[in-house]
Design a protein that fits this description.
single chain, about 120 residues, Beta-Lactamase, 4 helices, about 35% helix, cytoskeleton, PFN_euk, PFN
Length: about 120
């Protein structure tokens, strides 16, 4: 069972991907999630200056999410009733989308718990 499946199997996340921390390698990705190279590059660069997300938003799958929180660990965004987030670990970035009907704290908890697990295991 792959990591992104664990995120989607939660019922709170409908698509997810896990990239290397520098964004140059896809470690896992759900079939229905496709991110452009520039979106990943912008995400990686944004973690170096999280305040940049507040002005530009979080862009995934050609959709822009209004950022509600951004720091060196994670970036959280909303677009209408949907949301997206990315959480960084020692060696990876977990990126997830949640559909309408799921509350942000529910989705955030699922992704953050996996990120905490990876960090505890030096990943």
């Amino acid at each position: 069972m792959s990591w992104e499946y664990n995120l989607v199997a939660s019922g709170k996340i409908d698509k997810a991907a896990i990239y290397s921390r520098d964004g140059d390698n896809i470690l896992a990705q759900s079939d229905n999630f496709s991110l452009a190279d520039q979106e990943i590059k912008s995400l990686v660069a944004g973690f170096e200056d999280p305040s940049s997300f507040l002005s530009s938003g979080l862009r995934l799958e050609d959709q822009t999410y209004r950022v509600t929180k951004a720091d060196d660990r994670g970036v959280y965004g909303k677009n209408g009733a949907e949301g997206a987030l990315a959480v960084r670990t020692n060696q990876s970035i977990l990126i997830a989308h949640y559909p309408a009907g799921v509350q942000a704290p529910e989705a955030n908890t699922v992704v953050e718990k996996l990120a905490d697990f990876l960090i505890m295991n030096n990943y």
